[in-house]
Amino acid sequence: MKIQKISILALPVMLAGCSASKYVQEGEYILNKVEVKSDSAEYDAGALKQYVRQKEKPKLFSLFNNPFSKKPVVYDELQAQLSCRDLLTAMQNQGFMHAGVSLHTEIHGEEKTNRVEKTHGEEKTDSLANKSRKKAPKVDVTYMLHPGEPFHIGKVEYDIEDKNIEQILKLDEPENQKLKPGMRFTVDALDAERKRIANLLLNDGYFRFNKDFIQFSADTIAGQKDIAVTLNLLKYKVNSSAPETDHPRYEIRNINYLSNDSDRIHLRHRVLLNATAMEEGKPYSASALQRTYNNFARLQAVKYTNISFKEVTDAQMDNVSGSISDSTVNRLLDCNIQISTNKPSNISFQPEGTNTAGDLGAAASLTYTNRNLFRGSEQLSIELRGAYEAITGLEGYQDQNYQEYSVEGKVVFPRFMAPFLSKNFRRRQTANSELSVSWDLQNRPEFHRRVFSTAWRYRWTEPRHHLAWRFDLLDLNYVYMPWISETFKRDYLDDADNRNAILRYNYEDLFIMKIGFGLTYSDGVDAFRLNVESAGNLLDGFSRALRFKTNAHGQSTFLNIAYAQYAKFDFDYTHLFRFDDRNALALHADLGVAYPYGNSTMLPFEKRYFSGGANSVRGWGVRELGPGGYKGNDGRIDFINQTGDLKFDLNAEYRTSLFWKFEGALFVDAGNIWTLRNYADQPNGQFRFDKFYKQIAAAYGMGIRLNFDYFILRFDMGMKAINPAYESGDEHWAIIHPKFSRDFAFHFAVGLPF
């Protein structure tokens, strides 16, 4: 019987750089290819390549791996032997206690090829250095893994010297045991148990506990694949020379709020209490400490926070009555929260240039921000914005300019502002309540448009579960059209031969009252977004009860304005396959459906879907695709007609790091939009089960990105592959008959497409 101590290892990944020599010296070998293989088909050898210390220079874009040097990677036999050792340790940490590693090298020269094999830990000791070459040859290196059979956990025992902790953990009860007989024996499983127990104690008053007080011993029996594991929880020692004692348990005595800026903290005391997850008279908790940091970080008025603890001396404890438990070694902590606040207000100015379909313009915004409006870190922002654009290509209009002026006020409360919610619930949630009001004035040559909006919404997060929630309790939008040019009326709205119902609907006064719900999840690998909203139902109920007036189109009105009624659902999902730190494959699916009903026969323009553009099917420009097989015939108003009630997108994008801040991408996109009803102005645009799959557009292309960490500049070049606007011919099968002037689309955007 053999007893062995198991130590938890975090193996470092050491990437060797290029040789310092400009030229490969005689007797040296250029590292051409590195592979990690296994003699077991079930074992994932590729996952262990990270432990190889020396890797070959990338073949693709190898000149850009280091733009200032073309030096090759020179094979280092010592690094190879160390890699064998690290690979062996990694497999043992996975439970393959009888694993082995063989090193295979294959030399490629001008005259002949030599093959050398070295088995780690065995008698074969041929050296590459003994092979002579006229010119520096290349070498292929293969690390062959021999994992063997994995070991499993047999009997599990617990040796806890601290009886107080033993009573708290109750590891003798099966429901409290996470290490089970029959589990694969891995270092990760043992380390997870150490962390779990340490976290339990750190959240139950054990301020000075850490996982180093937990050790494992393993008992192996020759000829068997089971390992008896014993968990040893050691007693507390202040230092190496101090005697062993039971672990002290701590209670929070006082919580003090201190200012780094002045003698006064410009926040209400209630706000400070709500942000503090720790409580006086309760045991110390590491998770409560982290929540406190997170809560203060969310407050816009707070610049940074520092929390420290001071142990109460024995002399100070003499006058303190009451203890956590008579069976524990009791200690008290004073918690000092030091707060530094931001400047209460600031003014910012932001100019920008605009380009709408080739029409150039400029815009500017002036924003006033108050980060501590009511001394509760409430943030008030007031934004004034103006924009001007010179419009070209319009005939028959007196004015040829576009002007926009807007004002928006917003107040964000760093908490739930709602009745009937308990104090504990409000303290646990990381939430914001937002009130916004805006007025937007738009003057175009064709029309003048006014939009009034107000909303009350809630946002909260669950960082532990990677979730973010949004609830729009009330969202009101009033669209008012005070003036429409006679030219536009004559050509598009009043002419019976050219009347467009969709266009006409979007140039009428409209009232939208909606509620909405949103959920977002992201863990770095999987991400999804869900959004549901509904409009007009409450007003429709009032309309039926109070018998609201109807307009000429038979629609019920509120304040003499027709209200929209619809339901909308959106869902998109992204999965990231990360091959290594430089290469990844992103798969994305996007589905959206909106249905007008009751008081509406079609969706408001802002709520309709469009396809094409930088975040959709990138072979088309924005609003150039669909719906279905629809083919536009009037470029001036096709932006209205090329919208729909249903959207479906599929995307695949391979992403790779090139050099410096540059990244590359290859992508394939597919999708389209459809209408749910048969509108006369959108022929062949209605969704039908027997033909929609024939109307799915496809595109392919490549992209260049500049990744500056805090933001990404993206340049995508797409080509049409299948164009559903044409049922056959060269235009339909553009992938077979490509035409650059017809099929190419260029996109510039900020951020990744999904």
CATH homologous group name of the largest domain: membrane protein fhac: a member of the omp85/tpsb transporter family
How far apart are the termini?
A: 56 Å
Which architecture of the largest domain would the CATH scheme give at its second level? Beta Barrel
Helix content: 10-25%
CATH fold-level label of the largest domain = Porin
The total tally of domains equals: 5
Overall pLDDT score: 85
Percent of sequence in beta strands: 35-45%
Structural class of the helix and strand makeup?
mainly beta
CATH top level assignment of the largest domain: Mainly Beta
Tell how many strands the DSSP assignment holds: 29
What is the CA-based Rg, rounded?
34 Å
What descriptors fit this protein?
14% helix; 14 helices; Ubiquitin-like (UB roll); disordered N terminus; four-stranded mixed beta sheet; 5 domains; mainly beta; 754 residues; 16-stranded antiparallel beta sheet
